[in-house]
Amino acid sequence: MPCPLEALYAGPLATLVPPGVGEPPADTLAARELLEPERLAARLDHFSLQYDGGDRRAVASLWSKWHLSAVISAGLAANLLLERDLPLGLEALHLELAPEGQTRRLWLAHDGTPLATQDPLARFSTLIDAHLTPLIAALAAHSGASPKVFWSNAGNYFEYFAEALEAHPMASPGAAEPARALLAARQLPDGRRNPLFQPVRYLADAAGGEPERRRRLCCIRYLVPELGYCGNCPLSCRRSTP
Length: 242
What we know:
Strand order of the largest sheet: 1-5-4-2
Order of helices and strands: EEHHEEEEHHHEE
CATH architecture: Orthogonal Bundle
Largest sheet: 4 strands, mixed
Number of helices: 5
Number of domains: 1
Shape: globular
Radius of gyration: 18 Å
Distance between the termini: 50 Å
Strand content: 5-15%
CATH class: Mainly Alpha
Low-confidence stretches: none
Number of strands: 8
CATH topology: Transferase(Phosphotransferase), domain 1
């Protein structure tokens, strides 16, 4: 049976894999297992094999980028284009993994519910509170990397997909404005610091070309020697690296 969310996977999302909805295949991973230290360690150890072991902080960051791309693209598309809140909490979600160990596809319990609020600082609470917050705490505890690294990865994808979705064939004018409002807020509604605050900057090009998109914090992938720096790296030393 076709996934009810498949219509979202057009335009800027056309190359991504739509989530499955309903009973997950037997070989999927219950996302809640990522909060169990031994199970998370086993998953990341397997993922690290393609990087010859690799620095565990960088490996965890790389794994999170695959995972967060899938979760945030789906959550934002449903939220901004359909005004639906997907069941992205770790307790309800299953993950289909690639042979190398990264998240390849999400399996959702259902296709979402109408948004409970239009408040731009509250409408993303399922994604932030039920998925990102506990997962990032677990990844930081396992790897020793700062939670800010993982929140920066999340913010990078949040900003990227929000802007990309403005060009989606289903987007209404100003579709990304709620996401932009969240990224511009220093605090969440309950007074907590917003960990997604201003994750990227756009720097003027000296030659008058398109502004350069730059992350505010490094994803530390350069700690895996064969990968080096990403295209949005904020570290000035990357420019002098051969």
